[in-house]
Amino acid sequence: MSNIIELASQLSSQSNAIDFLIANGVISVPLCCEAPMRSDPKRPKIYICCKYPCRKKKSIVKDTFCGNSNLPVNTILLIAFLWCTGSTHSAIQQQTGVSKNTVTDWWQYCQELVGMTLENDKIGGPGIVVEIDESKFGKRKYNSGKRVEGVWVLGGVERTEERRMFAIAVEDRRKDTLTKFIKRYVKSGSHIITDCWRGYDTAALAKIGMQHSTVNHTVGFKDPLTGAHTNSIEGNWRGFKQQIPTQHYNTLFVNGGLDEVTWRRLNKGNEWPKFLEAIRDIRYY
After folding, report:
1. pLDDT digit string (tens) for 68-126?
2. Domain that holds residue 41
3. Any idea what the CATH number is for the domain that residue 174 is in?
4. pTM higher than 0.90, yes or no?
5. The sheet that has 148-158: what strands, in order across it?
6. Which residues have a Cβ under 8 Å from the Cβ of 207 and sit 6 or more positions away?
7. 20, 53, 81 — which closes off a domain?
């Protein structure tokens, strides 16, 4: 990943930032009258037809990641780069000079963007073991015994070198709900391993092409006969909960945090190039 000093020199002005996006294939110079348009020296976002008398004008960032904001393009890209590096809200605010609310808006926008790259990325496949588990994201209420307020999250991780994974908030842990989300995020033919929660129904999972094994956690964390366990996904829950603020343990915000953590793990060390790919490939309307 580039460092902040190197990138800052490439984004020293809005015009340079647009050149950076063009050079990296994120946007392209628009055409008009069968010829490339040229940039307006006074308004870098605007490109003008070179043919007289046409002189049509067009925003080069319309329908792009930067298109619906009044912020300069270089500021937007710097916010996105700092987000990719894992900078805090306050650090981004300090280095870009934008308001706290603006940082929050763009933070959530970045989460939404990387979440879209995960939408059609099913894990598993024929013969691949996928550990699946559910966990409650929430805070224990005082004077309420063992009751935990929050949201249930369903997750899965492959037993492969890539260790691809998914995590999604679910409304409940009923059979129909869990089966629906497993079908959405896991490829048919996978070998699923879960605990013995009744929501994981072997017959229902077989109908969507899944082989199903269980491990009884009241007896141990590994089935002594089959070797089945869910240690990988259970270990991941700890990491998710450490990286998502507790105030976001609700249906409004938790999926954004889950998507961010999942995306970072899949693209560790390559976040910025992958982010540029995402803003190039996502369609904006």
Report:
1. 899 999 999 999 999 999 999 999 999 999 999 999 999 999 999 999 999 888 999 99
2. 4-81
3. 3.30.420.10
4. no
5. 165-170, 148-158, 129-140, 191-194, 211-214
6. none
7. 81
